[in-house]
Amino acid sequence: MKKQIFKQSLSLTLFTLLITISAISLLLFSQLQKRFFTELAEEASVVKVLYQKNGIEGLKSLDIADRITLIDSEGVVLFDNRAKVEEMDNHNQRPEVQAARTEGSGRSRRESDTLLSKNFYYAISIADNQVLRLSTTETSFLNYYLKLITPAIIILLLVAILSYLLSKRLAKRIIEPIDSVDLAHPETGEVYPELQPFLSRLIKQNDKIQQQLENLSQKERELALITTHMKEGLIVLDSQDRLLMANPIAKGVFRIKNDDFNDYFIRIERSQLFIDAVESIHQNNSQEIQFKTKHHTYQVLLNPVFQAHNFIGTVMFIFDITDSASQEEMRREFTSNVTHELKTPLTSISGYAEIIHAGIVQPEDCTRFAGKIYDEAQRLLALVNDTLKLSGIENNDLLDQEIVQWEKIVSQIHNSMHLSLVNKNQNLEIEIEPVRFYGYPSVIQDILYNLIENASKYSGQSGKITLNIFRRTNDLIIKVKDNGPGIATREQERIFERFYRADKSHSSQISGTGLGLSIVKHGVLLHHGKIEIESKLGEGACFIVTLPINETPKKHKK
Fold this sequence. Notes:
Elements: H1 2-60, E1 67-71, E2 77-80, H2 95-103, E3 105-111, E4 117-125, E5 131-139, H3 141-179, H4 196-228, E6 233-238, E7 243-246, H5 248-254, H6 265-268, H7 272-281, E8 287-292, E9 297-307, E10 310-320, H8 322-358, H9 363-395, E11 402-403, H10 406-423, E12 427-432, E13 438-439, H11 441-459, E14 464-472, E15 475-482, H12 516-526, E16 530-535, E17 541-548
Parallel strand pairs: 12-14
Antiparallel strand pairs: 1-2, 1-5, 3-4, 4-5, 6-7, 6-10, 8-9, 9-10, 11-13, 14-15, 15-17, 16-17
Helix pairs in contact: 1-3, 8-9, 9-12, 10-11, 11-12
């Protein structure tokens, strides 16, 4: 703006100077021309009087600088003080002569033989229709200009330099108040009154922009807060599939770094699964894909975004379905295992019943076959009961928590297992510290029973089992230890799986449904506790259950 003001002011100054010089020149030319004709008219009047008194002799006696010409009524030159009359042509066609004959006087101006001078003529009518003409030659303005060209150029240069400096200073003085305006706080500046409407609009515009920025910042903070605390991953791509936004969950899943933004997503995730999905999304086809990492399973929903039928980007939602996928896998495995476990007793029952039904069994064997059918039915019933227990614990189909009566529960377990312990000549040592504990008594009883039963199964003849219940700070500790064969380290994490056995056998050598330790694990988790194993092969095993002690009972949510 400063340069523009400078150029315009300088141009205007120079243009005004040229116009002024031209106007003054024209005015001077007009005044000089009038002066020339006025002087010629005065001299012509004097010469006319002299001629009327003395005739041509009087004209010859004059010694003046101007040229005197006497013309008769036919246009013939009778006298000329500068040329020979016999060599001069007829003057009737001269405009000043014609004007003098009709109007009494006439004037004209003609170029001389050179462009550097001009001839001025003045003619008056005298007696007998004769015309007396005076003329003079004056230097033309072109000649004046040529003589004055050097001073004129010097003057023009000085004026141009002065105009340059003044224009620059003027532009600076005009722009300086504008440049000093604080755009953030324009009301604090001192400017021309003409700029006050502009400043008022600027203040209003600043207020409007500030409000819009605050709204945008608020929305950005809200969006960042929402996306940051989302449990799902969120990714936004532009129309060219470049990464625009990713929340922390998505960054963690795809290992996105700050340098990856504005880069193509297929360079970040190079799997063919995502390449095909991203390419297909441009055809307005929503995509749903699943992929696995080392420890997680994810489901990704890709949705295209269109504006006026133009594809403008992609929104991706990433869901961690590890638990549901794991549960689904466990459900399938559980169904397979339950089918297998149910098939064995049902096959035995069906086989014995078919033999009896066919009548091919001896009477003395009927009692033995009936006993087999009873044992298999009991095995089947135990499997169903354990399955129902496990389902009840997982679904929390329980009543309110209450004080656990440890002596009563342990006594019931000991009585139910007394015969089995006696037959194996096993010794169960019990040490209980009275601890006030709110929990689910039936679940606690299942935990203790299954831990003791598991220890009894693997301790063999004359084995030793110990049960310790005591308090440690704010936790209840349950320890069940045996002197059995122990559990290998690689199998310790799997023994709580449904139907898993450390010897990898489903034979009937060790009875049971394979759900006991799974019931223990889910019962411990129901009380927000944890279970650990201390065991080495050949040195027995110790199961340690840690349950946080509740000060108040938990109410059942119906």
